[in-house]
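Ticket closed. Logging final result for Class I SAM-dependent methyltransferase.
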Amino acid sequence: MTPRRRVGRKSTTREPIIQEPEQFEPEATRRTAGVTESARANRGWWDRNADEYQIEHGTFLGDDRFVWCPEGLDEVEAELLGRPDDLKGKDILEIGAGAAQCSRWLACQGARPVALDLSHRQLQHALRIGGSVPLVQADAAVLPFRDASFDLACSAYGALPFVADPVLVLREVHRVLRPGGRFVFSVTHPIRWAFPDEPGPEGLSVSASYFDRTPYVEQDDEGRAVYVEHHRTLGDRVRDITASGFRLVDLVEPEWPAWNTSEWGGWSPLRGGLIPGTAIFVCERG
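Final structure:
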């Protein structure tokens, strides 16, 4: 799971984890960023920051849990992919798998998951944790699988927030799913783009237009993007889903639970009790 969380560290070894400070402070801006620039920037960002991400959030995510979002919604309770008993024997693709925590949980239910991520370093953490889940490094917009290879697909904050053209990803997922297959993905709730990305009171006042689709970009001194995140309105997401051949069967907006006292970037109990932080789209292939 990879909700917006910008840190500035660089990893140099696989294990043990050793990190060095970044040599520059990126400039945050809003500007256009295309498919190629976004993919290059985000691959590099997650390779550099995977270590710190796993250190900071690994305990919350666990080694073999399926957590959909910073709110802490667990697939054990949500059953968005189906009942655990129904997952046995199913071929499942996890997109933007990170350290493959969700795939590991799926394997424990008797499913046959494949964990895919753009970042080589994230997948090294999957190797560090262990397990027998197949790992694939690839771009979600060009999936290296045959048509109709999977029964289900899932993505917990993986890929879709970071791609310039989400329809490319959705069409690829549609292609590799079997008829009747389900794709469930979570992203930052679109309304959050109108608010500052802050967990405290300063994150409760509207500061930008919800309808401004200009990407958020962090760039180096030469103007090269080192991190890109793309905004789609709720309507945009629905249109992207239907344009890709899916049928939207549910839209889940998890409420912040009383037990969760954690802050995760701009997610917090304060904000979570007032405005939604996550949107989960449940789609089915015809």
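Residues 120 and 154 are 19 Å apart (CA to CA). No further action required.
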